[in-house]
Amino acid sequence: MIKVQHLIGLPVIDYTTGKQAGIVKDIWFDEHWVLKGMIVDTGRWMARGITGLLWETVVACGEDAVLISDRQAMRKLVANEVTRCFQTGMIRLKDLPVITQEGFQLGRISDVYFDQNMGTPIVGYELTDGFISDLKEGRKWLRISDYPDEVTLGEDAILVPVRAEEDLEHMATSESVN
Question: What is the DSSP letter of 10?
Fold first, then answer.
């Protein structure tokens, strides 16, 4: 599984030339919260607008770099194409509350996981109850792929079935999910 926050900050390398094309700045999703692509900082201070990279052009996502088919894979995006992102944009996934359908908050989104072998739907959330709680109890992990048709991904909250509370797994650290 890939953790979204591990991608942010990685260099984007052109597979054909070995040259760095930029750095991953954020991850963007479509209206169904399926990973659509990456927002890339190209380092060109004169460049205006948002530079994006469609997920289909990613050759590999490693621990140290993201490899793309070639530099032509990057393109300028229109702002309204990038409305749902992990940490920027009009609708942010990071810090959204996860609430059961009976109104109990399980935590807030700290990170998101997806399995690139299964496509790009989100398979799980890492949840936080805040810094102190994270230190004392650790974060929680919720595998949402267990509820394919029962999760509502809204603009202001994520609604999950009541039984999701029972399925929460406590994590010693944010590195322990595999």
Answer: P
Mean pLDDT split into 10-residue runs, the chain, 178 residues? 91 94 92 86 73 89 90 82 85 93 94 74 87 79 85 90 89 50
pTM over 0.85: no
Distance (Å, whole) CA 28 – CA 81: 9
Give the CATH superfamily of 2-90. Answer: PRC-barrel domain (2.30.30.240)
**C-alpha span between 18 and 33 (Å, rounded):** 31
Distance CA 36, CA 28 (A): 6
The three-point CA angle 171-175-178 to 5° equals 85
Task: Name the region of 83 (left: φ>0; alpha: ψ -120 to 50; beta: rest).
Answer: alpha
CA angle 14, 87, 34 (to 5 degrees): 70
Go through the chain and tell me how many residues it has.
178
Q: Could you state, in order of their start, the residue ranges of all structural domains in the chain?
A: 2-90, 95-170
Q: Which fold has domain 95-170?
A: SH3 type barrels. (2.30.30)
